[in-house]
Amino acid sequence: MPGPMTIDRRRFGLLGLAAGLAATRATAQEPWPSRSGRIIVPYPAGGATDVMGRFAAEALNQASGQRFIVENKGGASGAIGSAEVERAAADGYTLLVATPATHVTNQYLRDKLPYDPDRFEPVVLLSRSPLLLIATPAFPANSVAELIALAQQKPGKLNYASSGVGATSHLAPELFKTMAGIDIAHVPYRGAGPAMSDLIGGQVELMFDNLQTALPQVEAGRVKVLGITSAERAPNLPRVPAIAETVKGYEALSFLALMAPLRTPTAIVEKINAIVTASFQTPEVKPKLAALGVEFVPMTPKQLDDFIHEERRKWGGLIRERGLKAD
Predict the structure, then answer these.
(1) Within 10 Å of residue 32's Cβ, how many Cβ atoms?
(2) 232-284 tens-digit pLDDT
(3) Cα 12–14–18 angle (5° rounding)?
(4) How do strand 120-135 and strand 224-228 relate by DSSP bridges?
(5) Residues 6+ apart with CB under 8 A from 181
(6) How many CB atoms lie within 10 A of CB 154?
(7) pLDDT digits (tens, 9 = 90+) for 75-109
(8) pTM for the complete prediction?
(9) CB neighbours (10 Å) of residue 50?
């Protein structure tokens, strides 16, 4: 027969197990959010990704009474911040601002990633935005049609700048080249800032850039605009023709979305979606988004998941077709 000490240990073990289960149930039943959280932006502060992350954080702060802070974890085209969120607890207190690079193109451009893009729960789309096709003021073409004609006359002689291999500013013109049947040389930079500087300086000729940074340069006369990458003209830029008016079916949009670690409870995901969706449609926030040149499109988590998979089909196919690889 077991001695008294053995019996006591078993009883202690059973009591400890019961207490642990009770604590787990209590934690699971706590209303979300009952403490502070964080939103990881996988890029440096100051860019569009950072700005939209702060809009999302403010929406959660105001609705919940808790404090969600933005943490910038840049590096490796968003891979470092994405990996940190993937490893975080699936409790709704650590979220990621995902980009086309982190959850669409990185997996096709790089042989190995420190995270799995499929190990996330889509939560809410923060923004969708087109790019502007811009050129140096002295560039001979003043329209998309004229650009295509010029490129046909000088195959491989024209060039465009991008913020790096695999960025939207790289893939959008690659899709344009494929659909228009032209050859324009790619000049990759380490970031949109240096690329824009050289475009303004005349070292490169063309660039596809987001509205937030391109419009001020257009308005200042430092560059000129040839077209926009949305399927139709943007309501706030009615005089800028859509590239699709010349190249039928062309569309290239950048997006930002909130993601949570895989297996975050559905109720929490849906609550975050509802909070951000309501906030981004208020009279206070809506004009701020419009001023940034971004569009908020309400989507359920399921619709966001479908959207991301469609983006993967589109851009993954282009990357494979053109044999693109990140440095």
Answers:
(1) 17
(2) 998 889 999 999 999 999 999 999 999 999 999 999 999 999 999 999 999 99
(3) 115
(4) antiparallel
(5) none
(6) 13
(7) 888 899 999 999 999 999 999 999 999 999 999 99
(8) 0.82
(9) 17
